[in-house]
Please model this.
Amino acid sequence: MTEATKLHDGDLTLEPTSGATDLTGFAVLQSGDRIGTVALQHQPGKAGRQAGSVRWNFNSDTGQLVAARAIGLAIDFGFNKLGWNRVEARIADGDSTGLRQASIAGMRREGVARTAGNDPDQVILGRISTDPPAFSREGFVAILNAGLPRKRVIGQGILRNEYDEILLCELTYKKEWDLPGGVIEVGESPAAGLVRELEEELGITVTIDSLVTMNWLPTWRQWDDACLFVFDLGQAASDLVKQMHLQKTEIAAVHWCDAELIAQRATAATIELTQALRSGPLPGYREAPLQPE
Model:
């Protein structure tokens, strides 16, 4: 164990209060007045040689910047004196003060650990020794990127045959049929993602003609809301389906569908979209109506 000493940052002082094989605690003093505590704990086993966790508790009137400075001092001690290369914190989801303090101290949001019962889920935040300083441009952008909400983006395509029928996919994970496409990956454009999805799921390479519309999908069943980019894929011969190699884990079959079959088998959003499309060009942005449960 590395013996803790007093840590200083301007009017802040962290005084060691406890020490054990796996725990180092500090009292946080501002101008001599105690305002809270910070503690570092090694991770169990061999992982504890290079990684640990930080937790803290401050008086209710402690400013966020002051608290973050104290947390940052403790994290730096973990890196510089304990030899860690990673420090983690877990904060109750909904604790905006704790999450803000951790972010200002340079910790990035990494995920959520779910809990059972009425206990709140725990937001996981981490900082590694090679992260840029929190108040540098690189550090600020990285922390902001990690904490900002991410909207789900889907790319789908309208592919018609010579009979003006539209291609729908019979899916393995829901009873309704849907337009071909899928979820866009991080860092991937909606158009490129749609081309990739059709190559993976149908074994075909398509050319995107234009954007039909961007359709916002509200929350449906257990699915989160999403922005759906619908592209025009032009026309193909009806026997194209014979050349397709379906990804059987997701696509059970494909079907050319007229308006009547779409109304019978498709998702409510696809029914509404294709019906609106038959009336003429769609606006660049629109919102799909709520779908039945």
Notes: The chain has a mean pLDDT of 92. DSSP finds six helices and 16 strands in the chain. Residues 64-80 form the longest helix (17 residues). The radius of gyration is 27 Å.
